[in-house]
Amino acid sequence: MTPQSDEDEVWRQIVASFNDTAERDSADQPWPDSENLPAEPTRRVVKPSEERLDDDPLVDDLEAVRTDDTDDENDADETDEADEGHFEPPPPPPLPKVDLPTKVAWVALFGGPAYLLVAALAGWRIEGWALFTAVAAFIGGFVALVVRMGDGPPNDSGWDDGAVV
């Protein structure tokens, strides 16, 4: 027999036994001891809220159960443990200053299509010169932003700007 015919025979056996039930049912298989968990009673901690209703008997019962034997150190330790996994990112850097030509280019880029959209939704009749101005503003704003983008290194990079590829 060739190796190909052996593989074909194994494949036929797999396909033939596809819908057969397993010899051992899953209930018959023993459960591994390493998967058993110790039986610990679940504890539920209920903390009273900061805002307290004076006529609420449940809040009074909780305060009666609560002990005042704790130190300020224990409270500080509990807050440290609670905040341990919490990440607070640093404040973001300030936005860069934008000069007047860049602001005008952005207004033109979004203002032209916005005017056309509002005019179309409102059903206004758009004159030829207004249509031309809106389209020219969009194209001009886009071109101005692309031209101002620049290809060179930033001005503050100094004499050693690292590897230039």
Key descriptive features of the protein:
about 50% helix, about 160 residues, elongated, single chain, mainly alpha
TL;DR of this structure?
Keywords: Membrane, Transmembrane, Transmembrane helix. This protein has 165 residues and is an all-alpha fold.
Mean pLDDT: 77
Total helices: the number is 5
User: Could you say which overall geometry the principal axes of the C-alpha atoms support?
Assistant: elongated
Radius of gyration: 37 Å
Instruction: Supply the helix-strand structural class.
Output: mainly alpha
Reading the helices and strands in chain order gives HHHHH
pLDDT < 50 stretches: 67-71
Distance between the termini: 60 Å
Q: Describe the biggest sheet?
A: none
Number of strands: 0
Q: Roughly what percent helix?
A: 40-55%
Fraction in beta strands:
under 5%
Keywords: Membrane, Transmembrane, Transmembrane helix
